[in-house]
Amino acid sequence: MAIAELLGSIPLAHFYDQYFLKLPFALADGCNHLLPLATRETLLEILSRPDADIIAASAATAQHCSPPIDAARLDTILASGATIGVRHAQRQNAALASLAEDFARDCNAVADIHLYLTPARCPGFGWHYDAEDVFILQSCGAKVWELRKNTVNPWPVAETLPEDMRYEKEIMPILSCNLAAGDWLYIPAGYWHRTRAVSESISLSVGLATRSGIDVLDCFRQQLLESLRWRQRVLPVVASDNAATSEAALATHLAELAHDFAAVLTAPSAAAEFLEFCRAGSRRST
């Protein structure tokens, strides 16, 4: 298990119960075994591929870079103070693909790996948050992470991430974490974060699309489609002369649907069905 290896002697149950989906967690020397996966050589090999998804980012902006990128062009980008990133790096490297599969299996979630190189004494991305839970695996150099709990838009989902995240509205205190090569950091979905490299920094960002209540609707949609009650065309969508009567009929029908859906969710097999739905989704996506 990928996460068990990261934790070492720390019980897996302790991490899942106390931190996962809840609070940030960092551990020194926890990912030493993964250091060979993210080196300058690994990055340059991926950057040379014509289908690599590459970005150059500063604290304020991010823009797409057309591949391939050789060592000279990489140095030019870094000299400007920009972070170079490869999105969906597991599609370009077999070892990273295997790591993504391990994380997906551990968390019953879709896993996506980004590879970042930030030049020394330069910021990475500015304050932002992600809809995914993220494991940061520091491979080379050192980086300072600042984190804040999100009270502006807690528990975000990818479909509703705003363009303006309204960081200026946040009131929670700032936490700081220093990562050196071999250290790792877990950031729950929605936590604000920003970074600054102390020395040239290479890291892997393993994003996990962990499940929310919205996914329950997707899981049981097919089952509902097989129900006559849910397929009946009985909703009063055309207003009658008596609007009050029409609205009352709609309210009654919605209550019946709610009762029916509650029966689906409380069935003895519901939890097992949802777990299998999550496992199948993570396998297909990975």
Structure description:
The protein folds into two domains: 2-209, Jelly Rolls (Sandwich), CATH 2.60.120.650; 215-285. It is an alpha+beta fold and 286 residues long. 29% of the residues are buried. The chain has nine helices and eleven strands. The strands form two sheets. An eight-stranded antiparallel beta sheet has the order 1-9-6-11-5-4-2-3. Strands 8-7-10 form a three-stranded antiparallel beta sheet, with no helix packed on it.
Fill in the keyword field for this structure.
286 residues, elongated, eight-stranded antiparallel beta sheet, 23% strand, 2 domains, alpha+beta, Jelly Rolls, three-stranded antiparallel beta sheet
Number of domains: 2
CATH topology of the largest domain: Jelly Rolls
Order the strands across the largest sheet as they lie in space.
Answer: 1-9-6-11-5-4-2-3
Q: Separation of termini?
A: 16 Å
Rg from alpha-carbon coordinates: 23 Å
| Poorly predicted segments | none
Structural category is: alpha+beta
Based on Cα principal axes, name the global outline. Answer: elongated
Residue share in helix: 25-40%
User: If helices are DSSP runs of H or I spanning 4 or more residues, what is the number of helices?
Assistant: 9
Order of helices and strands: HHEHEEHEHEEEEEEEHHHH
Can you name the CATH architecture of the largest domain?
A: Sandwich
Q: Major beta sheet, specifics?
A: 8 strands, antiparallel
